[in-house]
């Protein structure tokens, strides 16, 4: 069982001046095995929601709740959230010079699994996961994300998803910056994750509908002005594809004022 | 001979035949002398001293008398000769001449020098260890060490500094033609220690110097390495790895003097600073004289501020007097600990203290990778780990 519940979440981003409120009451429940798509225009607050769930220090939750299987996520430090089963594939993965990908992956797997994976099986596991995502083995020796192309970074986010096997995965624009082949490879990775972990939930944040041709969502939300303004089935995505976000943007101004 | 062609004979430290202000011929711009009185007592405004907290220098710059002895012990294989010599040994000074008052004070004040010689064409496989132990709390000592690598000889030397007290010294690296020296100096002093060292490296034709300065301990440590190329074809790499904690002042002042053609130099110094009033200083002077055609040089200094209140001063300075060089450049950057890196690592479940350690280790990784002697690299990795433990990073 893995359920993510977000209740009336209000979040501000810390700026050099006063904190700026971005999320104005988000309510959302991702149930076991579900894939939910979260779509919205630029600047509507999608990444803010993702970062808030993961616990980025620049975002301040001013009210509301985030629960993972009933447990209060917001009181946990960032690393504990990950160990509790949350994973965020970032829109802009961070470069960490001097830390090799292999060292990083092993440290993360050790932390999340509670013990160091056996070296023999681990090496195989990583090799296998990398080849499934068409990642050249030489990346293991490179510094985390350093000098990776946009697409390479995204593949490595999904590599981590597959190795860390979270209960809930938030994928923030994992599709952006991918060419058609890479999009297919990455989507396959996400689908494989869900086939192997049928209880896991996925919140797929995206701006475009094209990834939804590869990954079928159970629910589609439209996000604008820091809140969910409409929810529906896959047909909502089709409507967005045809008409864009125009119908929803006036609300953004209302919400932001 | 190399720098022995300086106008003053080394025994001039006794006779002082040259009087006051005779600049040496080989050091383009810098005044050098064995005579302590040839240098003014620094007041703190001088370019050479402006970053150094003189009040904490235990009067080394004001003629502090020697009140103790630092012990120097050498662990070397049989083929290496180790000698304790008097002030009149004619070899002293081959590496270079003091260029500041404390170095000249050390030169005038030491009673015995240690000379380690690796004979011609001898290749010493195991590292030679020189252990320097300070004179003890509240004591002052002066010393002198010379490493002589004769023609086509090769050696790895680790110089360990530990203990307490104030210690000023000159260290000479004299590399004959084709000699190769890998030297790692580790500053592992107790918290009270004050150490001021002038290191003089003189490189013969095609000689290769790989020098690494590892600065971890001590209250105030100031090291000034000078590299002089006497013949073409030589290659010097100076690496530095520095970890400054609460209240520590760790200073490195480098001068690389390209006076002859076709030599190479490469400098990479990195410092991590943590704690209130942790202070590092890096001065990187590279001089390419008019005769030094085909010079290739690069210097890099990077500083990582782990906490507020720490300060890193960084002054690269490249002077080029010829257009005919192969390449020259410098880069310097000081940055704060990156919260986004920490967030990224912890968001994958890695505990915060471990994540910090990964980032700092990664920061130093570039330098550790270049240390090819496994024992030395392990030793340094362990020292960095201990440092990270101690500061609770
Ligand atoms: N440090 C900051 N200072 C001021 N405003 C900020 C800061 N960080 C984010 N914002 C604002 O918060 C709003 C929401 O940003 P967010 O990144 O969550 O949007 P998004 O929906 O993910 O957009 P995109 O589709 O472009 O990724 C934007 O208007 C952005 O400009
Ligand atoms: Mg975004």
Name the overall outline of chain B.
globular
Structural class of chain B: mainly beta
* Computed Rg of chain B: 20 Å
**What is the CATH homologous superfamily assignment of chain A?**
P-loop containing nucleotide triphosphate hydrolases
Content of β-strand of chain B: 35-45%
**Helical stretch count of chain A?**
8
| Rg for CA atoms of chain A | 18 Å
Round the mean pLDDT of chain B to the nearest integer and report it.
90
- Helical amount of chain A: 25-40%
* Anisotropy-based shape of chain A: globular
The H/E string of chain B reads HEEHEEEEEEEEEEEEEEEEHHH
For the secondary structure, the number of strands of chain A is 12
Largest sheet of chain B: 9 strands, mixed
Task: Kindly summarize this structure in a few lines.
The complex is a heterodimer of chains A (257) and B (393). Chain A has 257 residues and is of the alpha/beta class.
Describe this structure in words.
The complex is a heterodimer of chains A (257) and B (393). By secondary structure, chain A is α/β, with parallel strands linked by helices. Chain A has a single domain (4-248), classed as 3-Layer(aba) Sandwich (Rossmann fold). In chain A, 36% of the residues lie in helices and 28% in strands. Chain A is built from eight helices and twelve strands. Chain A has a six-stranded mixed β-sheet, sandwiched between helices. In chain A, strand 4 (59-68) and strand 5 (71-72) form a beta hairpin. The longest helix of chain A is centred in the last third of the chain and has 17 residues, at 180-196. Chain B has 393 residues and is mainly beta. Chain B folds into two domains: 4-336, no CATH class; 340-393, no CATH class. The termini of chain B are far apart. At the A-B interface, helix 2, strand 7, helix 3 and strand 8 of A face helix 3 and helix 4 of B.
Compile the SSE list and pairings.
The complex is a heterodimer of chains A (257) and B (393).
Chain A: E1 4-13, E2 20-30, E3 35-39, H1 46-54, E4 59-68, E5 71-72, H2 78-84, E6 86-89, E7 96-100, H3 101-113, H4 119-132, E8 143-144, H5 150-164, E9 168-172, H6 180-196, E10 201-206, E11 219-224, E12 227-232, H7 234-243, H8 249-256
Parallel strand pairs in A: 3-10, 3-11, 6-9, 9-10
Antiparallel strand pairs in A: 1-2, 1-4, 4-5, 7-8, 11-12
Helix pairs in contact in A: 4-5, 5-6
Chain B: H1 12-15, E1 71-75, E2 81-85, H2 101-109, E3 113-118, E4 128-133, E5 140-149, E6 154-162, E7 166-175, E8 180-187, E9 194-203, E10 208-215, E11 220-229, E12 235-244, E13 249-258, E14 264-273, E15 279-288, E16 296-305, E17 311-320, E18 327-336, H3 339-346, H4 352-370, H5 374-390
Parallel strand pairs in B: 3-5, 4-6, 5-7, 6-8, 7-9, 8-10, 9-11, 10-12, 11-13, 12-14, 13-15, 14-16, 15-17, 16-18
Antiparallel strand pairs in B: 1-4, 2-3
Helix pairs in contact in B: 3-4, 4-5
């Amino acid at each position: 069982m893995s359920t993510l519940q977000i209740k009336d979440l209000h979040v501000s981003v810390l700026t050099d001046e006063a904190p700026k409120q971005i999320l104005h009451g988000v309510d959302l429940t991702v149930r076991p095995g579900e894939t939910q798509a979260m779509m919205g225009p630029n600047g509507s607050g999608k990444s803010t929601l993702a970062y808030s769930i993961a616990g980025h220090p620049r975002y301040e939750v001013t009210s509301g709740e985030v629960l993972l299987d009933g447990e209060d996520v917001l009181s946990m430090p960032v690393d504990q959230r990950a160990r509790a089963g949350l994973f965020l594939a970032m829109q802009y993965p961070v470069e960490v010079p001097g830390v090799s990908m292999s060292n990083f992956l092993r440290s993360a797997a050790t932390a999340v699994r509670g013990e160091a994976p056996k070296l023999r099986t681990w090496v195989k596991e990583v090799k296998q996961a990398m080849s499934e995502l068409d990642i050249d083995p030489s990346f293991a020796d490179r510094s985390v994300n350093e000098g990776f192309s946009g697409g390479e970074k995204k593949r490595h986010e999904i590599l981590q998803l597959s190795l860390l096997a979270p209960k809930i995965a938030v994928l923030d624009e994992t599709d952006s910056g991918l060419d058609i082949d890479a999009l297919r490879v990455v989507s396959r990775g996400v689908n494989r994750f869900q086939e192997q972990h049928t209880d896991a939930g996925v919140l797929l944040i995206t701006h475009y509908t094209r990834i939804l041709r590869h990954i079928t969502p159970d629910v589609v939300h439209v996000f604008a002005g820091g809140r969910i303004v409409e929810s529906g089935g896959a047909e909502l995505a089709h409507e967005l594809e045809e008409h864009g976000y125009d119908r929803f943007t006036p609300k953004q101004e209302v919400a932001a004022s | 001979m190399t720098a022995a062609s300086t106008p003053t004979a080394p025994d001039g430290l006794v006779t002082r035949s040259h009087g006051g202000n005779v600049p040496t011929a080989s050091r383009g711009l810098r005044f050098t002398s064995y005579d302590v009185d040839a240098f003014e007592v620094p007041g703190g405004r001088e370019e050479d001293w402006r970053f150094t907290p003189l009040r904490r220098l235990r009067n080394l710059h004001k003629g502090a008398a020697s009140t103790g002895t630092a012990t120097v012990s050498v662990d070397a294989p049989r083929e290496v000769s180790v000698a304790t010599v008097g002030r009149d040994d004619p070899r002293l000074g081959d590496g270079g001449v003091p260029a500041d008052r404390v170095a000249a004070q050390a030169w005038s004040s030491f009673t015995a020098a240690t000379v380690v010689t690796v004979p011609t064409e001898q290749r010493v496989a195991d590292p030679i260890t020189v252990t320097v132990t300070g004179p003890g709390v509240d004591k002052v000592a002066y010393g002198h060490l010379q490493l002589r690598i004769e023609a086509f000889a090769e050696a790895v030397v680790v110089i360990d500094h530990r203990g307490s007290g104030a210690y000023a010294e000159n260290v000479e690296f004299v590399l004959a033609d084709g000699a190769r020296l890998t030297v790692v100096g580790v500053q592992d002093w107790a918290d009270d220690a004050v150490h001021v060292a002038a290191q003089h490296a003189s490189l013969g034709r095609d000689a290769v110097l790989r020098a690494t300065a590892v600065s971890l301990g001590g209250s105030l440590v100031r090291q000034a390495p000078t590299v002089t190329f006497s013949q073409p074809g030589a290659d010097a790499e100076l690496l530095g790895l520095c970890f400054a904690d609460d209240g520590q002042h760790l200073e490195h002042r480098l001068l690389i003097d390209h006076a002859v053609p076709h030599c190479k130099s490469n400098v990479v110094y990195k410092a991590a600073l943590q704690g209130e009033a942790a202070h590092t200083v890096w001065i990187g002077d590279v001089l390419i004289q008019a005769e030094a055609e085909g010079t290739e040089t690069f210097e890099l200094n990077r500083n990582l501020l782990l906490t507020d209140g720490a300060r890193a001063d960084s002054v690269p300075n490249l002077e080029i007097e010829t257009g005919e060089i192969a390449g020259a450049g410098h880069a310097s950057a000081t940055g704060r600990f990156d919260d986004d890196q920490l967030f990224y690592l912890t968001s994958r479940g890695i505990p915060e203290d471990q994540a910090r350690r990964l980032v700092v280790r990664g920061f130093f990784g570039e330098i550790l990778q270049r240390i090819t002697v496994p024992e030395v690299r392990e030793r340094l990795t362990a020292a960095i780990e201990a440092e990270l433990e101690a500061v609770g990073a």
